[in-house]
Specification:
Order of helices and strands: HHEHEHEEHEHEEEHEHEH
Helix content: 25-40%
Low-confidence stretches: none
Oligomer: single chain
Protein name: Phospho-2-dehydro-3-deoxyheptonate aldolase
Pathway: Metabolic intermediate biosynthesis; chorismate biosynthesis; chorismate from D-erythrose 4-phosphate and phosphoenolpyruvate: step 1/7
InterPro entries: Aldolase_TIM, DAHP1/KDSA, DAHP_synth_1
EC number: 2.5.1.54
Radius of gyration: 19 Å
CATH superfamily: Aldolase class I
Structural class: alpha/beta
Number of helices: 9
Keywords: Amino-acid biosynthesis, Aromatic amino acid biosynthesis, Transferase
Strand content: 5-15%
Mean pLDDT: 95
């Protein structure tokens, strides 16, 4: 039996040329939305984290049908998060803990997670990913269209350096306290060239040299209080302008903006849709936590349901589809203004 503590190299896990052309095209499309060259609305939607790859691929099939239906108005990107940041403790995601039991078989996790991402990308959907551990980024980055640096890591220099090197648009979330300046500083840092240690394709530590990421942008995810309203968005745009950054904001309808209550996400989306309808072109995207079934389950509860989140509670698919329809209608109205 192989030593589970010896990781394969990124090269051994392998790049996948079958989806490379589509991933490059998707990245260009998202960059065009962020840059105002594409009038559609970016919608990053999907499970809080992937715990059952087969069931998440079922979700991907549903989302792909909806993405095609609303393609004239929305650029739909599926959340395919395999790492889960934790304030103190808890399940850290399929990549670092694929058996969901704390054993930390990362070698199996990178193979299983990589296989899932390639299959998900093969559906034709662009994929979103939160980069939690910079050491693992090289295993997954080539199949990711849109990346995120989360509220707990946005102040981290290694994550800012990583964002400057990653070849896709990166959303910087405001920190857990709700402050925007940390994320604004992160966007500025990611836009600059850096030299920093990282993992090469052959597994060796090497010096990575970045040229800067021109598509880093702000994600409002709330804090102790929400920050999705029109006044909050205006404040965020003013902060970006003050730092000499492009006026573009993605707003997360979950997390602090819904008080971590998945049932509040439709109300947040309705408010954001109204802002889009009113012609706010700097509100370029919306994030929604969604999965097959409403709610969540505890890992310690026994046999797990494949269709129910084991981390944050999500909206079920039947409650997600109307939100996509609402956002598509809002984007269509804005484009006609």
């Amino acid at each position: 039996m192989p030593d589970q503590d010896t990781l394969p190299t990124p090269a051994e896990v392998g790049a996948d040329r079958s989806v490379a052309e589509a991933v490059a095209r998707h990245r260009g499309t998202v960059a065009d939305v962020l840059g105002g060259r594409d009038s559609r609305l970016l919608v990053v939607v999907g499970p809080c984290s992937v715990h059952d790859p087969a069931a998440t691929l079922d979700y991907a099939g549903l989302l792909k049908d909806a993405a095609d239906r609303f393609a004239d108005d929305l650029v739909v990107v599926m959340r395919a998060y395999l790492e889960k940041p934790r304030t103190v403790a808890g399940w850290t995601g399929l990549l670092p803990d694929p058996t969901l039991d704390g054993k930390g078989d990362i070698a199996t996790g990178v193979r299983r997670g990589r296989s899932f991402l390639v299959e998900a990308a093969a559906t034709g959907l662009p994929l979103a990913y939160e980069f939690v551990d910079p050491m693992l980024a090289h295993y997954v980055a080539d199949v990711v269209t849109w990346g995120a640096v989360g509220a707990r890591t946005v102040a981290s220099q290694p994550h800012r350096h990583l964002a400057s090197w990653l070849p896709m648009p990166i959303g910087m979330k405001n920190c857990v306290s709700g402050r925007l300046d940390t994320a604004v500083d992160a966007i500025r840092a990611a836009g600059l060239p850096h030299a920093f240690p990282g993992v090469a394709a052959d597994g060796r530590l090497t010096t990575l040299r970045s040229t800067g990421n021109a598509d880093a942008h702000l994600v409002l995810r709330g804090g102790p209080t929400p920050n999705y309203g029109a006044a909050h968005v205006a404040d965020a745009l003013a902060a970006l302008a003050g730092a000499g950054l492009p006026p573009r904001v993605v707003v997360d309808a979950s997390h602090g903006n819904s008080g971590k209550d998945h049932r509040r996400q439709p109300g947040v989306v309705a408010d954001l849709a109204a802002q889009v309808e009113d012609g706010n072109r700097a509100l370029v995207g919306v994030m929604v936590e969604s999965y097959l079934a409403d709610g969540r389950q505890d890992l310690a509860a026994g046999r797990l349901r494949p269709d129910l989140s084991v981390t944050d509670a999500c909206l079920g698919w039947d409650n997600t589809l109307p939100l996509l329809r609402t956002l598509a209608a809002a984007a269509r109205t804005r484009a006609r203004r």
